[in-house]
Amino acid sequence: MHSMESSGGPYLNTAAVASPVGVARLLQVAFGCTTFSLVAHQGGFSAAYGTFCMFVWCFCFAVTIFIITCEFTRLHSCLSISWGNFTAAFAMLATLMSITAAVIYPLYFAQFGCYSISCKVRDFRIAASVFAGLLFIAYAVEVFLTRAKPGQVTSYMATVSGLLKIVQAFVACIIFGALVNDSQYSNYVATQWCVAVYSFCFVVTVVVVAFNVTGRTAMLRCPFERFVVIYTFVAILMYVSAAVIWPVFCFDSKYGSPWRPYQCSQGKCPWDSQLVIAIFTYVNLVLYIVDLAYSQRIRFVSHP
């Protein structure tokens, strides 16, 4: 028995659950399980918003369980991916998804009165909203703990530039969601160009993330860092064009409407979708500018 314990011990990594990052992941599992259990038991969910929230909580719970299991048993060493890049990318994605669900669920389902639902259902929904907020904090703590420190050699996805790639892709998904919600982007060639900008930048950003997670950056013919900097610069130029063109063709009185039309029903108005797209176009433009500035700063430090 003693010899079996000695040979089997090294295969288990207790730091996977005992370290600060491990504790954060255990809290993620606990808060995630509690959240979707409360909603499934009595809180309830409906429509696309509720389904999205449940998907977020279940997806994040499943992947976190997978990460903890792989690190505790050291099975991640058998996977043909860059584990550090994978966990850093997922932590950032889960942070963004969980904060979105933590805002959407109470906004559409939680209420303080019992006039339209029973008080028991109301209490479950409020409790689920609280745990959804705690879940977001747990993922944000992991991002904070695993982010690249000054002078530290770490995975690309743990750097500010890597984390920003996840945020840029997430913001692009919000833009796509608004585009398909009757945004009338097909009315003009100029707005179709904007859609091409969002699509191109999203695809290349996802490819950059995928190359890092799969550890295939060496396959590029040019140095990965140089490729990312050049792409980020091109993305900024493309987003600048979209940031100018989209508002002109949607909110100028010659092409669209500078104000929300009175006859538009709430939630089904093209003008609302156009406004969301305009706002997040500027958000992504700022993110790409910060990304480029950080990339240049890292390059300057690395090669004085």
TrEMBL record:
Keywords: Membrane, Repeat, Transmembrane, Transmembrane helix. It is found in: Membrane. This is Myeloid-associated differentiation marker-like protein 2. Belongs to the MAL family. PANTHER family: MYELOID-ASSOCIATED DIFFERENTIATION MARKER MYADM FAMILY MEMBER, MYELOID-ASSOCIATED DIFFERENTIATION MARKER-LIKE PROTEIN 2. InterPro entries: Marvel, MYADM-like. It is a multi-pass membrane protein. Residues 16-151, 156-300 form the MARVEL domain. One of its GO terms (cellular component) is cytoplasm. The chain crosses the membrane at residues 47-69, 81-104, 124-145, 157-178, 190-215, 227-249, 275-294. It comes from the Eukaryota. It holds the Pfam family MARVEL. The gene is MYADML2.
